[in-house]
User: What shape does this take?
Amino acid sequence: MKMTKTHNTKQIVYTALGILFIIILLGLAVLFPTYYTRFYDKNTLNKVSFTDISINTYETSYETFTEKLYALAEASENKSPLRAVRMNEPGLNPGEKELTKIANKEIKKLVGYGVINEQLKPKLKAKKLTLSERYTIYGKDTLQGISCWKLVYENSDTNVTIYLDEEFHKIFFTRILYKKIPEISVKDSAFDKIYDTSSAITNKFSYKEFLKQQTGDFYTWWDCIINSYYNLDDYPDKPVDVIPYDDNDSTPPYGYVTFDYKYKLLLVNKWNYGDDNVTWDMGIALEKLIQF
Assistant: This one.
């Protein structure tokens, strides 16, 4: 069957139209994104829009560390659920050396203020930092975001857990596990006052008794950490109430700092004695308030 001239012409036209259509599609694929971007930018850039959102979770407008303690106490007293959300921001977090430098600086302050005895001071090294997690603590209505670090150091003689405030670098809470009971030097003046050191004998029993006398005095510790380290004396309306765990216990393991006569915040200074180790919990009891 012979193809007529008219049929040939139609075939050529259809082919040309097909090619033209393909060219148009390719052109649109190349040019459309550029023109759309320009159109979108023209209608959105430098334009202000408003929407109602809650920013309590992300806002951190505390001017002092005391304000953070007040917020924690208020949320705790109001039974506001507190949550600690782990935040992961690669590249923005300080390194192990920087975190360890900050932690050691705060430990040094605690020693200087008399909160920690020099001989019981933990030695923190970056290479021994086995855990560094950043958390944001937040609650409903009354508590804005509070960011802190959970640091864990595993040494040959101690394990140290520290909750460190990200902004003001104060230590909220620390737990020190002494894996072995170290010897206390008989030259220590405080030790001389407690024991007759003429025999120059230091054993586990005397060490435990030394701890009870030297660092178990809750009221001395309380004054050092409250007035010196946390500097709560600067708070204008700061009624402080110490509630012993046991009326018969001369060295209560915890007490409360009370804001505005109604918001209580639990502080602990508790020693647990094992057969060959000692654990010291000290500071604001974050782990009792929040699940990390």
Confidence is low (pLDDT under 50) at residues 48-59, 185-206. Residues 80 and 287 are 15 Å apart (CA to CA). The chain is about 35% helix and 25% strand. The first strand starts at residue 83 and ends at 87.
